[in-house]
Amino acid sequence: MVDVKPVITKGLEGIYVSESAICKVDGTAGKLYYRGYSIEEIAEHSSFEEAAYLVLYGKLPTASELSAFDAALKESRALPKYVIGIIKGMVGKADTMDILRTALSAMSAEDKEVEDMSEAANLRKSARIISAIASIVATTGRLMEGKRYVKPNAKLSHAENLLYMLKGKKPRSDEARLLDVMMVLHVEHSTNASTFSTMVAGSTLSDIYSAVTAGISTLKGPLHGGADRASLRMMYSIGSPDNTENYINSALEGKQKIMGFGHRVYKTYDPRAKVMHKYLEQLSATGTEEVKNLISIAFRAENMMIEKLGKTRGIWPNVDFFSGPIYVQIGIPIDLFTPIFAASRAPGWCAHMIEYWRDNRLMRPLEYYNGDIDKEYVPMDAR
Predict the structure, then answer these.
(1) What is the rounded distance in angstroms from the CA atom of residue 277 to the CA atom of residue 298?
(2) Catalytic residue among 70, 228, 270, 320
């Protein structure tokens, strides 16, 4: 019998693994929808809490529903002493995403419903996970600066409290609004690498903490969650706006990747980047001098890349390219960029896991073996 090699789709590109009503990504038209609502509408009118509720529960909440969900988030903000100790012991020794992964995994010991696989319990656990990740991220940044843990403030919104726990003081309204918008834009994005790995882990019927921890581990990679840091570092390397064109030309001639451009799905302008562009235009007049300089570099690089590669090869700015200057304006250190991404994406990870469990099937793809067979075993003394 002849062994016919199957068609192998590397990276599972173009392969459908499930059906979902959570998110629609239209890469050709450059559209993104959360439960049928455009990202532009959600970013303009919603909050992180409302967007999280939407993706988890499948509908926009009433005032009472949002109030109850907000209360559930606030109840889970405080970190146990031993988790703070874990963070403190890892700061300065490990990557911030490694700290987040380990600390969230430890938080499962606090959840009495960790092994309850009912949907109601998983929705409750999702709120705890969302809050815990935000608090872990803020505490990591705080301890990185050698400062003490800040207890959460129940009077503040999710984004406000994250900044409060990070900086030790109530943030300005404009800072909180910027972070809230950034988190809304990152809440959900269909079956990306980290969401898929969450679903793979959960398909074994492991608990939701394990599944989300798998998502965090996947997001750490520079091809997924780390691109915003790489894009900002590139801007700092460019240094001056007048050096932008020389830098980009030199990089393209050397066949170097320009971080923040191109996307596996979007073949036109990333709609999330368009939303960010509006805020960057405002910050180009009101931001700090450092941020104004970064925005000038970003806009010049954007125009150049669109002219060279966007219109001809479909390589356009993505959400990662514009994130850096906005985070700098808010005062988020660069080592927290990817953890902030994780704090934003937690609702999406949980929503996909809960949805997949409704008709669960163990993820078990095949691989084509191309090695030798029936090899003769050679004893140790004959090797």
Answers:
(1) 10
(2) 320
Catalytic hit among 158, 189, 263, 352: 263
Per-residue model confidence as pLDDT tens digits over 104-116: 999 999 999 999 9
Residue 113's contacts (CB-CB under 8 Å, 6 or more residues apart) are 121, 124, 125
Helices 208-219, 337-357: inter-axial angle, 10-degree rounding:
140
Burial class (CB in 10 A: 0-12, 13-18, 19+), 255: exposed
DSSP string, 142-199: HHHTTPPP----TTS-HHHHHHHHHHSSPPPHHHHHHHHHHHHHTS--SS-HHHHHHH
243 domain-assigned: yes
Length, in residues, of the chain: 383
d(CA 65, CA 61): 5
Q: Is 45 helix (H, G, I), strand (E, B) or coil?
A: helix
Question: What strands lie across the sheet with 23-26, from one edge to the other?
Answer: 23-26, 31-34, 37-38
Tens digit of each residue's pLDDT (9 = 90 or more) over 57-74:
999 999 999 999 999 999
Find the mean pLDDT for residues 174-181.
97
Whichever domain contains 239, its CATH number is 1.10.230.10
Q: Is residue 136 part of a domain?
A: yes
161 and 255 in a single domain? The answer is: no
What pTM value is reported for the model? 0.94
DSSP calls for 91-145 = TTTS-HHHHHHHHHHHHGGG-TTTT--SHHHHHHHHHHHHHHHHHHHHHHHHHHT
* 277 flagged as catalytic: no
Instruction: Let me know if 352 is a catalytic residue.
Output: no
The two structure tokens encoding residue 187? 């809440």
**Looking up tokens 């559209």, which residue turns up?**
31
The residue annotated as part of the active site, out of 95, 98, 116, 224, is 224
Domain carrying residue 300:
227-330
* Closest to 3 measured CA to CA, from 380, 378, 371: 371
Same domain, 31 and 103: yes
Pick from 174, 126, 134: nearest CA to 158:
134
With beta carbons less than 8 A apart as the criterion, state whether 319 and 231 touch.
no
| Residue 263 annotated as catalytic | yes
In whole angstroms, what is the distance from residue 342 CA to residue 325 CA? 18
User: Percent of the chain having pLDDT more than 70?
Assistant: 99
CATH number of the domain bearing residue 193? 1.10.580.10
